[in-house]
Amino acid sequence: MEEKKGEVVLFGTWASTFCTRVELALKLKGIPYEYVEEDLTKKSELFLSLNPVHKKVPVLVHNGKSIAESLIILEYIEECWNTTPKLLPEDPYQRAKVRFWTNYYDQKIMARLLPIIVSRGEEREKAIKEFNELLKAFEEGINKDFPEEFPFFERKTLGYLDIVVGTTLCNYEAFHEVVAVVFSPEKNPVIMGWVKALKNHPLMKEMLPPHDKLVDKMREKYLGQYP
Amino acid sequence: MASSATVTANQLIIMAELKLFRTWSSPFPLRVVWALDFKGIQYDTIFEDLSNKSSLLLQYNPIYKKVPVLVHNGKPLLESLVILEYIDETWKQTPLLPEDPYERATARFWAKFGDDKVLPSIWNVFIKQGKDQEEAIVTAQENLGFVERQLTGKKFFNGETIGFVDLAFGWLAKLLSLWEEVCGVTLIDHEKFPLLSEWIQNFADAPIIKESWPPRDKLITKYQALLEVYTSKEAPK
């Protein structure tokens, strides 16, 4: 009988960028895992028992113990499999900077996507403007705090911020097609350069959902339109 | 006249200084105070008036313009929980987070839950009225139920000693009873939340924590004034 300890299982949904983050990290570190696609309209008893507080994906189960929240899972993977490539910097101050900007990205920038999706006309223009301002602040902050990290394509391996930012922003074409154009090479040259380089990374290419499939999913989810 | 050697030495001292920007009442910088005090680390405190922010604060935290900011060797650190992790990684004595990766993930999860869900839901109880407040109470107590269960078989969230999650929930030990008094609602009673009630007592009275609380009467005045602002906004039509 195969020993279940040491087994890694990821509960996720294919369209969730938070789940892609975890898959990227596992693949980067060469950690074998089983993937379970969870139907969020019909959550299984097992799934609910693994994340009773939030009832959301992703959930990582390792040695029978479950961990929820994508960023917490990423740090867990980093600490548990203390191998190269390292996702986070070694220096505590650099780590603090990475954590700060990741929180900013998730709590400020990502949070502005829904207002864009649900609004129309002038309200949407306003929401896009706010999103763009936050993105600009992020751009300037990252450039200032990690001067050696950019441009990305000069480095060989994906890091924590690349994973967090890349999994959403690399899907920008689908979002632009279904919802609205929210950033551009003119307005956000640094981010665009970063995203374009990330999209060319072989692992990103492998893990990002196919464009057409994502467009259909976004139409269904955001516009209630079905293919 | 200072020699060039003295000037360099002074510069080194300034660079090596640890400075904490805080306000007299905000609970988030208090987490940093506790972490530093628990580890026996020396630091300077700069009290900010958020209605009149110093240029230094704006320079160190241009994004949020908030406290806490911890400046170490001239380099600013922002966000209380991020600062706590930095402190734990830089000064290894009296560790705040456990060593085991799974336990660390669990601690981070509950600290995040506290900030993302528990605190906003309790704040909602404080500022809302009528039916909105009733609904807010249900949500807050649901959240508190999850937190209560985390204390099963433990004195503190960290076990026998105070740790990361205890510091993250520290505001609960002082501000909750205060807010309950000001708005006249009891959220945590000993029967429904026996473990949390005991934790509140143990935490609030612990050495270092005990000495750090801002003056209660001043806090009451502050929150009474805040509640009046919210109540006047929601005056019945």
From TrEMBL, chain A:
Free-text function comment from the UniProt entry: Is involved in the conjugation of reduced glutathione to a wide number of exogenous and endogenous hydrophobic electrophiles.
Pfam families: GST_N
EC number(s) from the headed UniProt entry: 2.5.1.18
Class of this enzyme: transferase
InterPro entries: Glutathione-S-Trfase_C-like, Glutathione-S-Trfase_C_sf, Glutathione_S-Trfase, Glutathione_S-Trfase_N, GST_C_Tau, Omega/Tau-like, Thioredoxin-like_sf
Record-given protein name: Glutathione S-transferase
Keywords of this entry: Cytoplasm, Detoxification, Transferase
Organism of origin: Lithocarpus litseifolius
Cellular location(s): Cytoplasm, Cytosol
GO cellular component, one term: cytosol
Ranges for domain GST C-terminal: 91-223
Residue ranges of every copy of the GST N-terminal domain listed in the record: 6-85
GO molecular function, one term: glutathione transferase activity
PROSITE patterns cross-referenced by the UniProt entry: GLUTAREDOXIN_2 (PS51354), GST_CTER (PS50405), GST_NTER (PS50404)
Domain of life: Eukaryota
Keyword Iron-sulfur: no
Family of this protein: Belongs to the GST superfamily. Tau family.
Record bears the keyword Transferase: yes
GO BP: glutathione metabolic process; toxin catabolic process
TrEMBL record, chain B:
InterPro entries linked: Glutathione-S-Trfase_C-like (IPR010987), Glutathione-S-Trfase_C_sf (IPR036282), Glutathione_S-Trfase (IPR040079), Glutathione_S-Trfase_N (IPR004045), GST_C (IPR004046), GST_C_Tau (IPR045074), Omega/Tau-like (IPR045073), Thioredoxin-like_sf (IPR036249)
Keywords linked to the UniProt accession: Transferase
A Pfam family assignment: GST_C
Residue ranges annotated for the GST N-terminal domain, each copy included: 16-95
Catalytic activity: RX + glutathione = an S-substituted glutathione + a halide anion + H(+)
GO biological process: glutathione metabolic process
Name by which UniProt lists this protein: glutathione transferase
